[in-house]
Please model this.
Amino acid sequence: MNRTFHARITWNQVVVMVVAAVLAIWAFWIKQALLAVVFLLMLIVLIERIIHTTYTVTTDGMLVLYHGRFTKGREIKLSDIHKAECFKGWMTHGVDIFYGANGHVAVQPVNEEEFLKALKIIHNS
Model:
């Protein structure tokens, strides 16, 4: 059975959305409709990316990273993953995944421990 993990919404994503919304309102206020539409489109892309970002561990041995409709997803074979560990920084935390020769990706699932367990369970099966 496939396991799907949703991405955590971080504070910097919220800040960027608020700034885009304020700039869109400001552009409407100064009667610059084209500029306002640009900021609104940026806001739509940001919201869509935040809502639809998922990490799916499939039963056929793949990790599918999906970042919304406007970007291309990435597939990583679980057999290529040689290290996956949690990281905690000053402002954020998530999971670093090292794969292949020099591949690296950082993901931020809502529950890091369950995500790591799912990677290991499917990888060992």
